[in-house]
Amino acid sequence: MTTSFTIAIDGPAAAGKGTISKAVAAELGLGHLDTGLLYRAVGVKVLGGTPAIEAAQSLTPEDLQRDDLRGPEAAQAASKVAVIAEVRAALVDFQRAFARRAGGAVLDGRDIGTVICPYAEVKLFVTASAEVRAKRRFLELSVKGEAETLEEVLADVKARDERDMNRSEAPLRPAEDALVIDTSNLAIEEAIETALQEIEARR
């Protein structure tokens, strides 16, 4: 694998792209960046009173280590700040530098294959129906003891999809040359194997 080998994995919330990305990176020995964490970290700083653009421009590696980045409030805040062009611009260089790191990299997010790394050697788009994704998210929240009904989670999933797919800056969509993996009826092991096969075919 060359030093500039980049794998871009995009998709909506709870489709499985994070799990697939981590597994692929571990299997192939590549660096991994969950770009959604960048937006979650900005969103959390905004919730704390920092203006969105300032939060993005002042983001530090320590901000990505916070314990509160995985909660529903951070997710909603991330989706809201991600529609701001200046926020996205502030985070582009960080992501592109990581993508071309020595040894190769896997980046997952919502606009990696279309905007951040249109040159990526492999592009995957991981998706699933809103209902399936909401059920997965509901089960995650239930395990954590975070009280939300399935109907509320489904509404949140659909609201995030609406924002992500219809924003003017870098809307969520598959790159023209991306392999679409629908995980609605796939076991995670099957989805990971499909991703690895596609990567191997393009190496």
Question: What labels describe this entry?
Answer:
five-stranded parallel β-sheet, alpha/beta, Rossmann fold, 203 residues, single chain, 53% helix, 12% strand
Which quaternary structure do these chains form? single chain
| Number of DSSP helical runs | 9
The CATH architecture can be given as 3-Layer(aba) Sandwich
CATH superfamily (homologous) name: P-loop containing nucleotide triphosphate hydrolases
Q: What is the global morphology?
A: globular
Approximate helicity band: 40-55%
Q: Extract low-pLDDT stretches.
A: none
Beta-strand residue fraction: 5-15%
Termini gap: 7 Å
Q: Radius of gyration, rounded?
A: 16 Å
CATH class placement: Alpha Beta
Number of domains: 1
Count of strand segments: 5
Helix and strand content put the structural class at alpha/beta
Question: H/E series, N to C?
Answer: EHEHHHHEHEHHEH
The neighbouring-strand order within the major sheet is: 2-3-1-4-5
Largest sheet, strands/sense/barrel: 5 strands, parallel
Residue-averaged pLDDT, rounded?
92
CATH topology: Rossmann fold
Describe the structure.
The chain is of the alpha/beta class and 203 residues long. It has a single domain (6-202), classed as Rossmann fold (3-Layer(aba) Sandwich), CATH 3.40.50.300. 53% of the residues lie in helices and 12% in strands. The protein contains 9 helices and 5 strands; from the N terminus they run βαβααααβαβααβα. It has helices spanning 17-28, 35-47, 52-57, 72-81, 85-99, 112-116, 130-144, 150-166, 188-202, and strands at 6-10, 31-34, 105-109, 122-127, 179-182. A 5-stranded parallel sheet has the order 2-3-1-4-5, sandwiched between helices. α1 (17-28) packs across α9 (188-202), α2 crosses α4 and α7 packs across α8. The longest helix is centred in the C-terminal third of the chain and has 17 residues, at 150-166. It starts with 5 loop residues before the first strand and ends with a helix. The model has no long low-confidence stretch (mean pLDDT 92).
